[in-house]
Structure formats: structure tokens, C-alpha cells
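Researcher: Quick test of sequence recovery. C-alpha cells follow.
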């Protein structure tokens, strides 16, 4: 199924007047405050957030999985789903693959299918946290950190193979997330496990094409519950520094212990030019992988405040991070959920963009905590949604993507095409 331009136009026609009234009012207010609205709208239109191939089916928990109907059955259908999202919001123009959950058999055909939807390939993800039928050694006790050389080698080779797939598809980055760690005190020698991980990563790094990046994801626990080898940003940063200039830390919002100050981590990494990737989701307790902005929108905004500060800082060498949504759960229609997540990310971005940074720096330099809070909270409390809608309008996307998704009965049509029992591969 494809969403056609005339369907977007018809929908936008219905909402146009209402949108213009809201946008003009907001634009005038912001311009009076010295904000260049056009620049902000362009930045919003330019922001593309990659969709992981595993977020298109209903996620499971370790207790059960309740598949939705009409879910994609193949990589081709996952690309089709992202094509639908991108047609609706023009902000989801990239897919991130997890190998071997997605094995592109004919990479040329997959590449041209994706480009027919205006979709490019974002970072490719390796998977050494599950055993595959064809592999010789088990990852039960680790992969890149494993005590046995053969297991480490198998995991290294897998990562090199993933790079090869990525090269064929036009990806420019490899993301490594390890579940390696231990469940019980003294089960693992921390120092040796970390050293072996570094050695393995060095082997992978040596095979990285010169125009590629490698992102190292950290996570404090799960599935190992006593320790993980790459437990926090400091460990990831240490590894990235040891590897070299193509290696970066990846921040996944769900990979922190409760109350961690993630915005400060972002600021520190950007100061060092080492923030390479970002996985968006939201959580109440742990790595809950819930819809972005559904639980802690203020935290998301404070994170974007630091991201904008870092991206606008001409003195730091931080590349534009690779943005991705890493969410998946059991309750919502995955496509509706992703539309909501993209919207939440862009709202936080827009709110951060309208912060008067000069005034904020002045308040900070004067230790005026009250003024600083007023400045950021006035941005946070501004309803910036008309700016997002305007960015969509200028990109020929739908003024209200979720509304159009429902009006067109997209899921119902997908169920007719794919059947009730279709189950996405992956998780
Ligand atoms: C692990 O929790 C993670 O955040 C990593 O990014 C994985 O690749 C992804 O989730 C999918 O399980
Ligand atoms: Mn992640
Ligand atoms: Mn995660």
C-alpha cells in the first residue's frame, strides 16, 4: 500500500485554515521575541529519525507477545511500513536493520525498494545476544568478552559480516550493543572481560570502512542482572576513545538507572565530540521501550536543550548524531506509536530551538537560577505543534499524520493485504 500525494493534499486542504490561524499567531509571538521562525521550521523539516525494523511489529515481553494483525511479514513489508510513515510525516526517511533478524537476500532490490519510498539505510546493528541455528558456539556466557577465543572470534566475524551488508545497502555506521555480563557476583572477572571486549572491538574497528562510524551502546543491566561489561557512558566513552576517531558512544534513553541525569551525560559527550548515536524511547522503571515523550516529556526537552546547545556550538567537533527510535511494546498499533514518537521528538526539539540561548547563558553566568528556570520553562510550556505542522506542510507531509492514518484506515487495508495472523520477524 502507498499513500498518494492527492490523499495528503485533500487532507491538508481540510485543515489548512485552522493550521494557518494557529501558526500565524505563534509565529508572530515568537518573531516578537526575536526568534527566526523560518530557520526553526527548516530545521524541523530537516530532522530525520530512523525507524528500527524491529519496531514495526508488536513487541514482546518475556512473558508473552500479543501480535497485532497486518504486521509486516518480510523486510520488504517493513520498508513498505516505513514508507507509509515517511509519506505521512516526511521525517522517517531512514531504516535501521538488525542482522540477522533482517537478512537482505538481494541487496540491490532492497536498496531500490527503499529508495522508491525515499528511504535510506541508517546504522546496521549486529546481534550477538541471541544464538542463531547456524552458529557453532553459544553466546550464553558472552560474545565479544567471552573467555574463549573461538566464541569471541565468531562474534567478531559476525560484526564484520554486518558491516559488509551495510556497505551493500549504503549504511555508514555499525551499532554494537552487547548483552555480555554476569548474573552473579564473582561469576566474571571484570577487568579481563573488559579487556577482551576492547580487543574484539579493535578487530572490528580495523575492518571499518574509512567513511564509517562505530557506535557503542551501553546498558547497566538486562539480560544480565549483576553486571554488564559496557555498563555506562563512561565505559562506552573509554572504549570509543581507545578505538579512535571513528568510534562514538550511543545513548539509549532507557539504558540508565533511575534518576540518572541523562542531559548532563549528553553535554559531556558532546563537549568531547563523542556522541554518535541516539536511541529514543521512554520509561518509568528501566528499559521499558515505551513511546517517546509518553512518561517524561520534561526530561526529553532538557535533553534536547543540551543537544541543541551541543549542535550549535562551533567549538565542538561533535558530528550530527544518528537519531533512531528504539521502542517496542505490546499495546498500541506500532505505526501509530511511531507517529507519536516522531512527533514527541520534534516537539522537544522545537521547544529547545526556541530557547533564548543568549539570555540563558547570561542567567547562568549570573547564577540567576530563577531566571534560568523561567527561560527554559517558558519554552517548554509553549505549544510548538503549529511549527511542526508548518514544517510538514512545507515538506508535503500531512498536517495531522495520525488523523490521516486513521481516516485512510491504513491498518485495516494492511490486514486485508497481509492477513490477520501476519507476524513480523525479529523480537
Ligand atoms: C538493547 O536493549 C537495545 O536497546 C539495543 O539497541 C538493541 O539492539 C535493541 O535494544 C533491540 O533489542
Ligand atoms: Mn537501543
Ligand atoms: Mn534497550
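Model:
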Amino acid at each position: 500500500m502507498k499513500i498518494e500525494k492527492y490523499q495528503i493534499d485533500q487532507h491538508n486542504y481540510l485543515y489548512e485554515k485552522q493550521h494557518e490561524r494557529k501558526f500565524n499567531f505563534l509565529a508572530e509571538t515568537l518573531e516578537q521575541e526575536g526568534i527566526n521562525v523560518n530557520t526553526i521550521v527548516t530545521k524541523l523539516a530537516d530532522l530525520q529519525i530512523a525507524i528500527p525494523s524491529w519496531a514495526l511489529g508488536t513487541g514482546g515481553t518475556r512473558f508473552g507477545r500479543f501480535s497485532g494483525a497486518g504486521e509486516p511479514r518480510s523486510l520488504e513489508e517493513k520498508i513498505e511500513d516505513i514508507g507509509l510513515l515517511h509519506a505521512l510525516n516526511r521525517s522517517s526517511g531512514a531504516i535501521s536493520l538488525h542482522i540477522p533478524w533482517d537478512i537482505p537476500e538481494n541487496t540491490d532490490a532492497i536498496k531500490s525498494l527503499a529508495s522508491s519510498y525515499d528511504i535510506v539505510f541508517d546504522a546496521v546493528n549486529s546481534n550477538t545476544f541471541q544464538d542463531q541455528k547456524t552458529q557453532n558456539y553459544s553466546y550464553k556466557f558472552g560474545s565479544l568478552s567471552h573467555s574463549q577465543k573461538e566464541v569471541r572470534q565468531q562474534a567478531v566475524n559476525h560484526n564484520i559480516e554486518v558491516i559488509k551488508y551495510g556497505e551493500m545497502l549504503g549504511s555508514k555506521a555499525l551499532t554494537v550493543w552487547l548483552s555480555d555480563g554476569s548474573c552473579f557476583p564473582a561469576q566474571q572477572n571484570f577487568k579481563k572481560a573488559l579487556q577482551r571486549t576492547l580487543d574484539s572491538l579493535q578487530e572490528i574497528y580495523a575492518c571499518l570502512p574509512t567513511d564509517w562510524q562505530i557506535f557503542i551502546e551501553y546498558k547497566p543491566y538486562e539480560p544480565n542482572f549483576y553486571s554488564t561489561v559496557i555498563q555506562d557512558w563512561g565505559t562506552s566513552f573509554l572504549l570509543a576513545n581507545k578505538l579512535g576517531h571513528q568510534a562514538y558512544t550511543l545513548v539509549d534513553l532507557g539504558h540508565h538507572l533511575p534518576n540518572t541525569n541523562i542531559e548532563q551525560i549528553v553535554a559531556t559527550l558532546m563537549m568531547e565530540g563523542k556522541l554518535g548515536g541516539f536511541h529514543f524511547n521512554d520509561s518509568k522503571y528501566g528499559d521499558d521501550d515505551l513511546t517517546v515523550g509518553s512518561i517524561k516529556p520534561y526530561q526529553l526537552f532538557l535533553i534536547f536543550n543540551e543537544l541543541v546547545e551541543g549542535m550549535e556550538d562551533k567549538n565542538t567537533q561533535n558530528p550530527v548524531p544518528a537519531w533512531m527510535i528504539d521502542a517496542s511494546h505490546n499495546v498500541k498499533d506500532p505505526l501509530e506509536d511511531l507517529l507519536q514518537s516522531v512527533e514527541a521528538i520534534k516537539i522537544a526539539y522545537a521547544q529547545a530551538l526556541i530557547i533564548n540561548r543568549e539570555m540563558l547563558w547570561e542567567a547562568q553566568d549570573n547564577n540567576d537560577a530563577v531566571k534560568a528556570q523561567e527561560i527554559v520553562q517558558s519554552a517548554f510550556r509553549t505549544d510548538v505543534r503549529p511549527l511542526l505542522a508548518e514544517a510538514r506542510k512545507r515538506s508535503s507531509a500531512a498536517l495531522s499524520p495520525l488523523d490521516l492514518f486513521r481516516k485512510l484506515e491504513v491498518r485495516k487495508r494492511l490486514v486485508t493485504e497481509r492477513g490477520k495472523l501476519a507476524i513480523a520477524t525479529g523480537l
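The domain at 48-346 is CATH 3.20.20.150 (TIM Barrel).
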